[in-house]
Design goal:
Layout: E1 7-12, H1 19-35, E2 39-44, H2 49-56, E3 60-63, H3 74-82, H4 91-97, H5 100-107, E4 118-121, E5 135-138, E6 149-151, E7 174-179, E8 184-191, E9 198-199, E10 203-207, H6 214-218, E11 223-226, H7 233-250, E12 255-262, E13 271-277, H8 287-294, H9 299-315
Parallel strand pairs: 1-2, 1-3
Antiparallel strand pairs: 4-7, 5-6, 5-7, 8-9, 8-10, 8-12, 10-11, 12-13
Helix pairs in contact: 1-9
Length: 326
């Protein structure tokens, strides 16, 4: 789709833990759209967001929000009711993909491997470990590795975990517990077009200390990005297959990014999907723009492609209808 000059509202900020990331993404997107001659209205989300969008009356909304309520279906439902096209996935997909347990229920029966695990009440952790160490604790519906903790025999949190030890158990009533998978951190972006979704390859993420947490993701110099990842061809192909499968099964639109852990001692059996992000970051350090650039698509091209896909989905019921859901 050739993109005409449009009035685009860029929705960013909000009040989630990922607000700073969203502001970086949103302002980067807005700058890119302005560089291509589009009229841009920047909207820092607040409780009056519906009125502000209605007053702006844009042709399309670029949703650069991360976390709740911009990535969980809330904003998507509002924009559906307003009849305004918007980027990225629709309501139903957003509700499922932000919830790590619901995502497993969708993907694992379709042959997409994910780590085992279960939901635990944080109170349980003060009585006994829910799994043998090492294991991972993470909030059910946060992104950007917010609140993720790896519990090992060397963790300075007690055994069992002490109530006064700092960790996600102090902030969240329920957590997802999964076995820790040793090995490499990998990620694959998927971009939609009129010809269908395509995977952009595989990046290995090598934090210089610790694991790939929030600080490692968004602090320049803390993580090396290796593209293409120095991994066997069959693992690259499998990452791309699983990322495409997850994108299709969940009904993602526009773009998504699927994150993996790969135990290189186990071959193909050691590859696991951790999550699929329906609204990946668009900051200078973000992985979707980086992979797109390696594939010959600059940042502004990527942003316009995402907008074009939103308009195509809105106009074509066969592409998923107004909200982009199948």
């Amino acid at each position: 789709m050739t993109l005409p000059k449009l009035h685009i509202a860029v929705l960013m900020g909000g009040w989630a833990n990922e607000r700073p990331v969203s502001l970086m993404s949103g302002n980067g997107v807005a700058d890119a759209l302005e560089s291509r001659g589009h009229e841009v209205t920047r909207i820092d989300m607040d409780r009056q967001v519906a009125a502000r969008i209605a007053e702006a009356a844009p042709d399309v909304v670029f949703n650069a929000l991360h976390g709740v309520p911009g990535e969980d279906g809330t904003v998507q439902g509002m924009l559906d009711l307003m009849g305004i096209p918007y980027t990225h996935s629709g309501l139903a997909t957003s509700v499922i993909a932000i919830d790590k347990e619901l995502t497993k229920l969708m993907l694992v029966p379709r042959g997409i491997p994910m780590p085992g695990g279960r939901i635990v009440q944080s109170e349980e952790l003060y009585e006994a470990d829910p799994l043998a160490r090492p294991y991972v604790l993470k909030p059910v519906n946060e992104g950007s590795s917010v609140g993720v903790a790896i519990i090992t025999d060397q963790s300075n949190c007690g055994n069992p975990i002490r109530r006064d030890a700092e960790g996600p158990w102090q902030k969240f009533d329920h957590l997802l517990v999964e076995p820790f998978i040793r090995g490499l951190e990998l990620t694959t972006a998927v971009i939609d077009s009129a010809d269908g979704p395509r995977a952009l390859g595989v990046t290995e993420l090598k934090p210089k200390s610790g694991f790939y947490d929030f600080d490692a993701k968004y602090t320049d110099g803390m993580t090396d990005h290796i593209y293409p990842a120095d991994i066997p061809e069959d693992i690259t192909a499998l990452c791309c297959k699983y990322a495409l499968d997850a994108h299709r099964v969940l009904g993602c639109k526009g773009t998504s990014r699927t994150d993996f852990r790969w135990d290189d001692e186990q071959g193909e059996a050691g590859l696991f999907v951790l999550e699929t992000n329906t609204q990946p970051g668009m900051t200078p350090l973000s992985l979707v723009p980086e992979q797109a650039r390696h594939c010959g698509m600059d940042y502004a091209d990527l942003v316009e492609a995402i907008v074009a896909e939103a308009l195509r989905n809105f106009a074509d019921p066969g592409a998923g209808g107004k909200n982009g859901d199948d």
